[in-house]
Amino acid sequence: MARKYFDQELKSLTKKITEMGDAIQSRIELTIQTLRTGNVELARKVAGSDSVIDRMEHENEKLCMNLIASQQPIAGDLRIIAASLKILTDMEREADQCADICEILVTSGMADSQRLPVNHIVNTLETVQDMFSSAMDSYLSRDVQQARRICMADDAVDAAFGKVVLEVSSAIAHNPEQVMHDVDLLFMIKYVERMGDHATNIAEWVIYLVTGEHPDLNDGEEMPAAGYKGSD
Amino acid sequence: MNLQTKIAVRPDGSQTPVHQDLPFQQDQEAKIQTAYGKLSGKEKIKIGMQNLDLYYGDFQALKGINMEIPENRVTAFIGPSGCGKSTCLKTLNRMNDLVENCRITGKVTIDGEDIYAPRTDVTLLRKRAGMVFQKANPFPMSIYDNVTYGPKIHGVKNKAKLDEIVETSLQAAALWDEVKDRLKKSALSLSGGQQQRLCIARTLAVKPDILLMDEPTSALDPISTLKIEDLMGDLRKEYTVIIVTHNMQQAARIADNTAFFLLGQLVEYTNTTDMFNNPADERTERYITGRFG
User: Fold this and answer.
1) How many CB pairs (< 8 A) connect A and B?
2) What's the rounded mean pLDDT across residues A209-230?
């Protein structure tokens, strides 16, 4: 088959992005543990090491740009590289928001993990963790059906976000002295909700990579048929 | 897609069954999304091919080609060597008449007229559908005489008129500024890129409607290639341009519509943006991404 080396480089790109996905996955896991256990040192570690993910993002971006410049990709090849570039941005934002949540925990003292809103934030973050993991799996396997299912999970995240906002608002009304602490909870659930959106964005780019059509799953828009016919 | 079922592929990618008992649908207009953005108006069909088969002796080089080519657009023919793209190009001004044992069935029309009808004046047809070849082939005479050769054959004798033709043709071919002070010099003294633009000027001098270009830049350096590509962008305003190219990026840069040929069949014919972003046929995808050919 022609273009043996280019095919190897495309496979290598997918592998490197998947490795970056694994690194982000473990950061989400650490963030969940931090919220559950109140371990400030762990929170500090997550918040302070975001540059590792930034470096991976830049290296993978560079690889994409080099492939565009040297191989002049078209059709399915172009879609792999274009989608990978876009996915990288959303992946990096996932890691950023883990760092943001941990930073709040470090600077404002640990949240009381027994409180109801914190439990709900943890549960929602677990849903987001599954979404991200599933989005990365769909990228690796080029699975459009799996990518489409991520949209439904995001609806649950959005609903949980609304619920936590109501809970926290109610807590502020009943106990105004704790308002600063409660505002931190609002920031955290907002970050988690955005992480769900980024996972959905990744799923959208997987659909584009395979079908050539880019749906807006965050708005519940109609999705294209999932017939895969592109090159690998 | 089974082309043997006689399906006309329109430039927008849609398909129309071709009925043997109906006249070729010249009045149908195609909506085309081009590489330069979606066109608002409807397109006039300049060239039509219906059930076109071509044989070199026993070998069938074109198999049931059905396509319509719109006016004032650049259409690229792509495909691996031996796929029939150059043969198809040459049917449009009957250059294949010169090939021994070449036999054609089906219909080729320009502006609705069957160019293989017995009454067709082949010299006038080739004036109307001029051709530029892979290798620049200027005549061994002056630049001026190269350009005026065609008009003189077609009866233009007035010196002022010939001067005007030389200037307008060379300007249209983006060569005037480079040669206006040495028109009496030999055409063979020009660079390869200039010679090819001179050949384009020579073709334009007889006022064709259609420009057929068979790999016109494959022997040129990158700068000369880009000059000719820019030129094609200008020429599409007045001419219907069809280019055969092996350079995928060139087709992507300059063509409004692209046709992919394989083993004598027209596999896919659609607007260039779709072809190079998301081709419909697996064989097209594999060819344009360099997986075979």
Assistant:
1) 44
2) 63
Q: Burial-class residue B40 by CB neighbours within 10 Å (0-12, 13-18, 19+).
A: exposed
Number of domains forming the structure of chain A: 1
CB contact under 8 A, B293 and A1: no
Q: What span, in angstroms and rounded, lies between the C-alpha atoms of A26 and A46?
A: 10
Name the CATH superfamily for B3-20+30-288: P-loop containing nucleotide triphosphate hydrolases (3.40.50.300)
Closest CA of chain A from B4, distance in Å: 23
A217 compared with B138, residue with greater pLDDT: B138
Q: Tell if the CB–CB gap between B289 and A73 is shorter than 8 Å.
A: yes
> What is the reported pLDDT for A1?
58
Whole-model pTM: value is 0.79
Cβ pair B292:A1 closer than 8 A? yes
In this prediction, residue A176 carries a pLDDT of 87
Residue A161 lies in a domain: yes
Please say if the pLDDT value at position A228 is more than 80: no
pLDDT band for A177, please (50, 70, 90 cuts): confident
Print the domain residue range for A11.
4-219
Q: Using alpha carbons, select from B244, B208, B260 the residue that is nearest to residue B86.
A: B244
Concatenating the DSSP letter of every residue in B94-136 gives: TGGGGSTTEEEEEEEEETTEETTSTT--HHHHHHHEEEE-SS-
Q: What is the ipTM of this complex?
A: 0.74
Q: Is residue A224 part of a domain?
A: no
| CATH number of the domain within which A53 lies | 1.20.58.220
Kindly report the nearest CA distance between residue B28 and chain A, in angstroms: 29
